[in-house]
Design goal:
Radius of gyration: 23 Å
Oligomer: single chain
CATH class of the largest domain: Alpha Beta
Order of helices and strands: HHHHHHEEHEHEEH
Mean pLDDT: 91
Strand order of the largest sheet: 3-4-5
Number of domains: 2
Number of strands: 5
Strand content: 15-25%
Helix content: 40-55%
Largest sheet: 3 strands, mixed
CATH architecture of the largest domain: Roll
CATH superfamily of the largest domain: CBS-domain
Length: 178
């Protein structure tokens, strides 16, 4: 069983000693020591119990969207001029801005979108003319791994609860928590 080889790694990742794992899994410390050194083969029920204890602890310890999100969100209306967006980005040191409000986001504008649509009269255009689709919205309890996967594709992820945006996670927010 490949998972059995991972027991020691998972235990150490959680910062547990053999004794702590043994107590939580209701086995002896010597059993854990023998298992990790490959000296014994556990019964299916003991192996399952040990792995369940480790997996549950790992899930609880994993950061969630609520732990990663930035609660201060700057919004902009879709009728605003691109020049105002650029000024807000400079003022707040941000690279993208959701379009709408905390109850309804209708799109996203970013430095990349502005640069990709650059023209001499772009600054006078309205945001709605070049905005991109709404980024994904996840729940407060979404695991960090899911957020990380989404940020590989999207410039940011919004965090919502009951139809209201509670925060956002950018790539730089995620990197701060690694």
């Amino acid at each position: 069983m490949e998972e059995l080889k991972q027991i020691k790694l998972l235990r150490k990742k959680l910062g547990w000693g053999q004794k702590e794992l043994a107590e939580r899994a209701e086995v002896s410390q010597s059993f854990i020591a023998k298992l990790e050194s490959g000296k014994i083969e556990p019964t299916y029920s003991k192996a399952k119990r040990i792995l369940e204890v480790l997996n549950k602890a790992e899930e609880k310890e994993e950061l969630q969207a609520k732990d990663l999100m930035n609660k201060k969100i700057i919004y902009i209306g879709e009728e605003e001029k691109i020049l105002l967006v650029i000024k807000k980005m400079k003022k707040y040191g941000i690279s993208q801005i959701p379009i709408g409000n905390k109850n309804q986001v209708v799109g996203l504008i970013s430095e990349s979108v502005i640069l990709n649509n650059w023209s001499e009269n772009l600054a006078r255009k309205e945001v709605k003319e070049i905005m991109k689709e709404v980024p994904p919205i996840v729940s407060l309890e979404t695991p960090k791994k899911v957020v990380m996967d989404l940020l590989r594709v999207f410039p940011l992820v919004l965090v919502g609860k009951k139809g209201e945006i509670k925060g956002l996670i950018s790539k730089s927010d995620l990197l701060e928590n690694i």
